[in-house]
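job 3f2a | input accepted
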Amino acid sequence: MKKTLTVILSLLLVCLAVSAAAEGWGQEPLCFTGDVYATYDDSALPDGHLKINIKFVDERPARERQYFICDIQVRSADALTTTFFNPNNMKKTGLLEKIAENNQAVLAVNCDFCGDHDSGIIIRNGQLYRAEKTYKLDMLMIDGDGNFSLHNGSRKQDDVKALAQQLLNSGIRHTVEFGPALVKDGQALPFTTKSDNDNKYVISTRSSQLESRTAIGQISPLHYVIIVADGTRKSNGNWDGYSLQELQQMFLDCGAQTAINLDGGGSTKLYFYNQVLNKPTSPSRQVSDALIFR
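job 3f2a | predicted structure (294 res):
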């Protein structure tokens, strides 16, 4: 009898702890200071699950660039997901806003455009789509509790088939293959293994090059930050945008414990509550997949 009572009391304590955590979600301080540009908050509703606050910084006329910091707090990991434009064919592409609308997203950004390349381990919603060797990609892994982890550095030794199965067995729900990884365990990561001219872990750009950027990070359980940074072509033909070092520092300033660079450049787009907030350099660019909160 005493053993049964102990089990019942233990379960009750667990239930109370879970209930308290659920009631207290969305209460962490914002990852940025200053004015809130846009917000979405359904936390007061009985079934509320999503709280988003966005900061906008326009650096013009001093610089031809601008950026958004999105502080996102969710009730459960189910609010964060990835999706393809065409779930039956990951190579098919469409506008980000169309992907967002088709999936009832409140916020969406371009993901890794995995339909445009053939390498890496792609798991989406617990389903394995691809397991192929890669040498230039870093991998973000998202588990069933919404926690982020990274597989970065040299990928030459990966047994991709075995690794993919291991990830599935461990409960990984999504993988994102792009990079470079920016922050791990709250610390800045180096972008290359040799010199800045070594592009080994940088996709189509040196770390000091100025570009439009999209990136995501995790601050704490169920608390995330997305940064979307716009660059524009100046009158002299050069680009003004954000380097990976600048992007990395933004995530460190936000308190991110984990962060990774996503597809950027012409793909950079921030969809929020039925509109595109940023100024894409290629507004009609189509992508294969998106990372969404809904």
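job 3f2a | The first helix runs from residue 2 to 23.
job 3f2a | closed
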